[in-house]
Every structure is written in C-alpha cells, then in structure tokens.
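for the recovery benchmark. tokens below, seq after
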C-alpha cells in the first residue's frame, strides 16, 4: 500500500519499499548482482523479503573480511576500502562475471545490473559517524552500453543498526530510481530520501554517466543536492564531474575565493593569482599540499527568490574553462565556511576577499541568531589558523584607494577590527593590477545587455569568446532580441 512521506508538503504518495523491490523482482528482464561490504547485506534483503527474487538476483555477496575482499577485488594503493575507486572495482568485477557466466544468446531480453556499496558505519567510540559509497551499473536495453549512478553518503545517526537500515532503504531507492526514474534525474535525487528523514544521511556527491545520462550535467546535479537540503556544500572539478569534498580538502592548505563570478572578470583572476602567491609563501603552507577553491553561495544564485539554474550553469562553464575547482555552498556567513573546511583540515587556510566583503563580516546583523553574537562568530572564524587576503578597491565617491588601513567599519567594531588586523589576520594584497580596479561584474553584464563595446577586454582570455559562442548571461537575451527584430 502506498505511504505518505513525512514532511512532503505535496503529500505525494510513493511506493513502499516492498512495492519498489517487488516491481523490480517481477520484471522478468531485470537481472543482476548485489555486492555489499561493511554494513551487512542491507539492500538485498529487501528484495529477498519482497518475494519473486529468484528471477532477479543472480548473486548476493558480502566480502566482509578485508583479506577476502582483496582477493576478489584487488588492493587499493592507499590501503582504504571505503572509497570510490573500491566501489568502481566492485561494479566492474561483478559485471564482468555476469557477462562471462550468462549467455546473451540464451537470454536475449535480459538487462543486467550490478549494485554495490562499501560502507563504514559508526565506530564503537562514536568518534566517526560513518560514511559510504553506493552505486549501480545498469542497462535499460539488452544491447545498450551500461549506465552508472554513483553517490557518497555521510551518516548522521548515532547507532550502527539504524545506519544499516538507512543504507538498505537508500539502496532500494537507488535501484528503483535507476530503472524507473532515470528519465527524471532531478526527481530521482529526491526519491533517494523516500521513507527516511533528511537528517539521517547527507548526500554530498553524486555522478551520472552512460548513454541515458548524456544530457545530464553533473554540475547541475550538484546544485540540486544543496538546493534540496541534502548537503551543505558540493564541489566539482574542471571536467564538470562532482568530486567528494573530503577527497579535495583532507589535510590540505586551503585558499578560498567567494564571489558571484557573473561573469568571472580580470579582477577575480588577479585576486586569485596575487593571493595565491602570498599564500604559498606562508611558512605553514606547502605548495604541493595547497588547493584553491572558487566558492559560490546559494544566496548568490537566487534571482527573485528562486535559483536560476541556467545562470548557475553559465558561471560553472566559465570557471571550469579556466581550470578551477568550484564549490557551491549554503554558507551565507564566512565563519560557517571556515567551520566546514575545518572538518577536513587543520592546516593553514586563507580567504581572499574584497573590501566590501570584509566590511560585511564586521556587521553585527549577520550574527544576531548566535547567542554569543559577533564574538562567537569571530571566535569560530579566526580561532583557526586563518588569514584574510584583502584586495583593495577604489571608493566610487572619493576616488581614493581603500585598503585595510582606511576601510570603515561600524564605530562599535573599530577596536575588534584593529585587534585582528594588528595580529596579522588581515593581509593587504599590494601588487594588484591598478589598471583593472574599475572592473565590476555588474558593469560587464550591463554592457552586454545594452550592446555596448569594450566588455570583452574586462574578462580573462577566452571568456568573452565562450560567452558569445554559448550565448551566456545577458548575451543570450541580446541575441534573441536581435533575431526577433530581424524577423
């Protein structure tokens, strides 16, 4: 019988777990294997209990012992077992066995799948809450190349048994979604939380690949994870694929630049290059261990109260074309961003920002929800081994250059500001490019929208060409306007 998902404001009826598993089992063409490591065989048990599993489950196994697991799937270079590389080895190995052992000629209508997970649940001391990788490789037609969906989860529950049960539910939702919701990947994401509360797990990485997902942009899927409240932050690399934040940030020296990047300008890149030069000269920074993150907050993506996904993709394409790693977060305040980084690294970090951003940090209105107010926020922000690299600006009213020495904060904040500045927490960027200080993203967009000349020179090499070629931002509407007038 259908059940109502708690908290769903649309009260949408969704199939029960048994109904989902049974629908898979009763499809005479779906046939595959289950390989689950680290938390029992929690997913496959739903399919056994639903009934009719004999025509669906080719094999269910759990190579629980590490030595036995290594004998089957090989060893990892880093010696770890709960990794994406391990998951992919499991999927590949099991699918190869399927192809070898099942004669396609005798089973012309069979569509194969391989489901796998490798998981570490909460430890006895409850110090590490646990996490895991889940994935499915599957066909939708017998002669089709394989599709793949891979995701990473973090458990929030504090009992291993509950984590195991949650893992089984997510696994069923993933398999069901792969076969019956693959054509609606955004909805597939939401359906992963069927029958579980959002505060039980966090999904912080997900990638789609294969012929059925050729039109899916994984960067847009990243945005959905944050937009749907499934995680606080996601990251993707220059190739457009989502990457696990922990894999990039773990024990790293982190330099982060927050901006709208709408579009990315010469100023943005000058801020990056000059602050990076300072950062790698710091005595606690190892250049080989340093990572640069271009961060966009969800609030910067909102237009008239809604997130403009097309606008987001425009920014993403440009930053990726420059070879940058991008982070989308739900952290409006900087101290939350630093707290997030601190979950993965205790090494020296730095934030690059403009004058207006630093002034905003010293605005008390952003911290009224904290019992300790601005002092609590600053304790979280600057208690860590963190520095702020400040890029100057030209005051539009006076024409004077504004640096850390003459910027104006609220009178009540003057002494607090002086304390952090004179303790070396705020560092001016001196070797900036004076010729580009007049450039602002909003002015570039205005020039594009009004058909003015000269905006191309305000952007890094190749960016203007990309905006024209892909018709990004206001250039899109300008082209449409011209086409309408010609017709």
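predicted aa per position
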């Amino acid at each position: 019988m259908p059940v109502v998902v708690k908290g769903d404001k649309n009260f949408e009826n969704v199939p029960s777990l048994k109904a989902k598993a049974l629908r898979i089992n009763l499809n005479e063409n779906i046939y595959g294997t289950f390989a689950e490591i680290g938390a029992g065989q929690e997913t496959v048990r739903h399919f056994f209990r639903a009934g009719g599993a004999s025509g669906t489950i080719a094999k269910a196994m759990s190579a629980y012992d590490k030595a036995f697991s290594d004998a089957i799937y090989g060893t990892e270079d880093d010696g770890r077992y709960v990794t994406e590389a391990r998951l992919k080895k499991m999927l590949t190995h099991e699918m190869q066995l399927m192809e070898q052992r099942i004669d396609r000629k005798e089973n012309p209508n069979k569509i194969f799948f391989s489901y796998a997970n490798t998981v570490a649940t909460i430890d006895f001391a409850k110090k590490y809450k646990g996490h895991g990788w889940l994935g499915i490789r599957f066909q939708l037609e017998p002669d089709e190349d394989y599709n793949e969906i891979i995701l990473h989860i973090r458990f929030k529950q504090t009992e291993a048994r509950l984590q195991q049960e949650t893992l089984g539910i997510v696994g069923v939702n993933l398999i069901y979604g792969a076969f019956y919701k693959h054509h609606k990947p955004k909805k597939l994401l939401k359906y992963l939380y069927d029958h579980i509360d959002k505060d039980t797990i966090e999904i912080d990485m997900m990638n789609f690949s294969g012929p059925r997902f050729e039109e899916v942009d994984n960067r847009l899927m990243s945005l959905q994870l944050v937009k749907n409240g499934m995680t606080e932050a996601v990251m993707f690399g220059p190739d457009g694929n989502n990457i696990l934040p922990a894999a990039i940030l773990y024990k790293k020296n982190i330099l982060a630049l927050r901006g709208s990047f709408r579009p990315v300008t010469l100023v943005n890149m000058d801020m990056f290059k000059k602050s990076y030069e300072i950062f790698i000269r710091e005595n606690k920074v190892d250049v080989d261990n340093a990572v640069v993150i271009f961060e966009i907050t969800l609030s910067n993506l909102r237009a008239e109260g809604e997130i403009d996904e097309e606008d987001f993709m425009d920014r993403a394409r440009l930053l990726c074309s420059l070879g940058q790693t991008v982070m989308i977060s739900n952290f409006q305040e900087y101290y939350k961003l630093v707290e997030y980084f601190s979950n993965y690294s205790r090494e020296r970090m730095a934030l690059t920002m403009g004058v207006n951003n630093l002034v905003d940090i010293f605005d008390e209105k952003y911290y009224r929800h904290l019992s300790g107010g601005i002092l609590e926020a600053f304790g979280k922000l600057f208690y860590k081994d963190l520095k702020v690299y400040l890029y100057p600006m030209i005051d539009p009213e006076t024409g004077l250059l504004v640096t850390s020495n003459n910027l104006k904060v609220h009178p009540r904040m003057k002494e607090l500001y002086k304390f952090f500045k004179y303790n070396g927490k705020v560092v001016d960027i001196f070797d900036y490019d004076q010729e580009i200080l007049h450039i602002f993203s909003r002015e570039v967009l205005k020039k594009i929208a009004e058909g003015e000349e000269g905006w191309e020179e305000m952007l890094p090499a190749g960016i203007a060409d990309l905006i024209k070629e892909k018709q990004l931002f206001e250039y899109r509407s300008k082209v449409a306007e011209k086409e309408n007038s010609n017709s």
